[in-house]
Q: What sequence folds into this?
């Protein structure tokens, strides 16, 4: 039987339908093909470049062999090598020096992440690499990493869709770095083809009754005896301003303008910005005990701010029977109360720091500023629900 050629996107189904002697050329990667030789299906590359014809056998398909994705990736790598004029011996030498994913991760963290991104982002990347990414793909050579490897990693983390999807994003950034270094062909990122899990939007708002329970827990004598009062006060400020957690924990006294009722944040998730304080938030900061620390919420280590509210928060929500409520839900709650106080979306956006700092500051000097009125109403309503005792820090 003579050899028959046809063009199609090579897939597992395409290979299963191959008849003896039949060859299929891939429409996605020119020159990449598969042929059936007796009972075997063999991937190959046929390419004309630099005035020469090249024919390379890539490997067999099936049990113990290559997947379509892995074979196509190898074909792309061979094409790059051929265009670069590399001989088979040179190509093998390059492959011997190819790093594995774990080695690339160390380099990427040091030269890119630590040097160019925020420390909080670097911590997130390291944590995700350690918990999800490296256990699955650390030992795979960078040039051989394929979407079936990524799919298995993603599937293993499926119980937390958000975390699984963030792992994909991190691997994608790392592979883009590998491409820039010439370790992978251009446009060969194996993450591109992976479909993300659907993430449920979680908007949790505390009710008046829940806020009352939270207030009671914050002012509970046992809670106050066992946890930093600065941590408990930080929870109050988060709720009365809608600030992000890192913004509050890294708040310096030099950023607090009690006279104008503003927080002038030098570095937040959205850059420099101002937060307008309602009367209750302003009162909390005015009553805050001062130490010799430059941080509003100093930590246990000298010269350092509070690192986390996890322990205090866990104890408070347990006592208040608010299991599952997150620190970030305080931000949602502030936005909800702001809307209930008559705030428009642009006003709430300014309160939460979603607009540019200059836009917010334009309103800061006005005595009857409508944004400040909304901040006052929201913080008053929250303070009333919490109870005054919860908002009076005492050392």
A:
């Amino acid at each position: 039987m003579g050899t028959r050629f046809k063009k199609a996107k090579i897939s597992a189904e395409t290979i299963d339908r191959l008849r003896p002697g039949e060859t299929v050329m891939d429409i996605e990667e020119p020159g990449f093909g598969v042929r059936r030789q007796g009972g075997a299906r063999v991937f190959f590359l046929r390419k004309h470049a630099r005035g020469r014809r090249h024919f390379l056998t890539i490997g067999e398909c099936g049990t113990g062999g290559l997947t379509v994705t892995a074979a196509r990736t190898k074909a792309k790598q061979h094409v790059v090598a051929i265009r670069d004029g590399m001989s088979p011996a040179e190509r093998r030498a390059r492959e011997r020096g190819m790093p594995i994913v774990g080695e690339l991760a160390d380099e990427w963290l040091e030269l890119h992440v630590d040097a160019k991104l925020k420390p909080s982002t670097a911590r997130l990347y390291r944590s995700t690499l350690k918990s999800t990414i490296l256990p699955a793909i650390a030992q795979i050579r960078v040039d051989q990493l394929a979407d079936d490897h990524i799919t298995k990693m993603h599937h293993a983390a499926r119980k937390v869709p958000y975390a699984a999807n963030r792992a994909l994003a991190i691997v994608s950034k790392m592979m883009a770095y590998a491409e820039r270094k010439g370790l992978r062909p251009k446009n060969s990122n194996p993450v591109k083809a992976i479909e993300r899990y659907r993430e449920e939007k979680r908007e949790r708002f505390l009710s008046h009754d829940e806020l009352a329970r939270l207030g009671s827990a914050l002012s509970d004598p046992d809670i106050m005896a066992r946890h930093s009062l600065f941590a408990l006060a930080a929870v109050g400020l988060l709720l009365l301003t809608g600030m992000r957690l890192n913004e509050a924990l890294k708040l310096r006294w030099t950023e607090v303008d009690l006279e104008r009722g503003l927080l002038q944040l030098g570095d937040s998730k959205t850059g420099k910005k101002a937060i307008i304080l309602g009367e209750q938030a302003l009162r909390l900061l005015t009553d805050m005990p001062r130490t010799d620390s430059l941080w509003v919420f100093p930590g246990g280590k000298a010269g350092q701010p509070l690192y986390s509210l996890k322990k205090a928060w866990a104890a408070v929500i347990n006592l208040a029977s608010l299991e599952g409520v997150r620190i970030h839900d305080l931000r949602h709650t502030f936005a909800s109360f702001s809307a209930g106080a008559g705030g428009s979306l642009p006003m709430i956006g300014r309160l939460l720091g979603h607009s540019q700092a200059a836009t917010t500051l334009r309103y800061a000097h006005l005595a009857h500023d409508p944004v400040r009125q909304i901040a006052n109403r929201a913080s008053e309503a929250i303070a009333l629900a919490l109870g005054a005792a919860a908002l009076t820090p005492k050392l």
Observations:
- The beta strands are 4-8, 22-26, 32-37, 40-49, 52-60, 256-257, 262-265, 273-276.
- The longest strand covers residues 40-49.
- The domain at 101-180 is CATH 1.10.150 (DNA polymerase; domain 1).
